[in-house]
Amino acid sequence: MLERILVCLDGSKLAEQILPYAMEAAVRLGSKLVLLQVIVVQTPPVVAAGASTYAVKAAGQQIEKDETEAKAYLDDLAQPPREMGLDVECVTQRGWQIGQTIIDYAEDHKVDLIAIATHGRSGLKRLVFGSVAESVLRGSGLPILLIKPREIDK
Fold first, then answer.
1. Residue range of the domain that includes 41
2. CATH number, position 90
3. Could you give the number of structural domains in the chain?
């Protein structure tokens, strides 16, 4: 049985397209949904060690702001599934490698399924930015519910 479904979100409408699929799985399987957004810490801690006190403080304030916004965003997204009677938890995690942060969370919190949308990058963009979905797929060892979302009109 799948008790915990981790739904990976990044604040984009593309990523949100995984929600109906995750909700349907949660309804059918009686699973808890965990909505997760990774708060990106721009540099690894080793690099930040040489930064000025002012820069470190400013970066910390930005991270706290991002975390507050992410929590509000996740709480808004959690309302429809909660209204359907689903058990929903909203979580933010800090990390500088998004894919690895998702994998670590899943391992530490006994997640049974990871639900994630790709952003459909290819070519140079994929080479430069990488693929969080691919990183999770290759590194987690868990079942993955993966969709390629439809483009959204701007």
1. 4-147
2. 3.40.50.620
3. 1
Nearest by Cα to 5 from 110, 149, 136, 137:
110
Q: What is the largest CA-CA distance in the chain?
A: 52
Question: Is the pTM higher than 0.70?
Answer: yes
Helix or strand or coil: residue 17? Answer: coil
The answer to whether residue 154 sits within a structural domain is no
Dump pLDDT digits (tens) for 49-106.
Answer: 556 676 767 777 888 999 999 999 999 999 999 999 999 999 999 998 999 999 999 9
Q: Are strands 32-40 and 113-117 parallel, antiparallel or unpaired?
A: unpaired
Is residue 153 included in any domain, yes or no? no
Q: What are phi and psi of 38, to 5 degrees?
A: -85, 130
Residue 107 forms beta bridges with which residues?
none
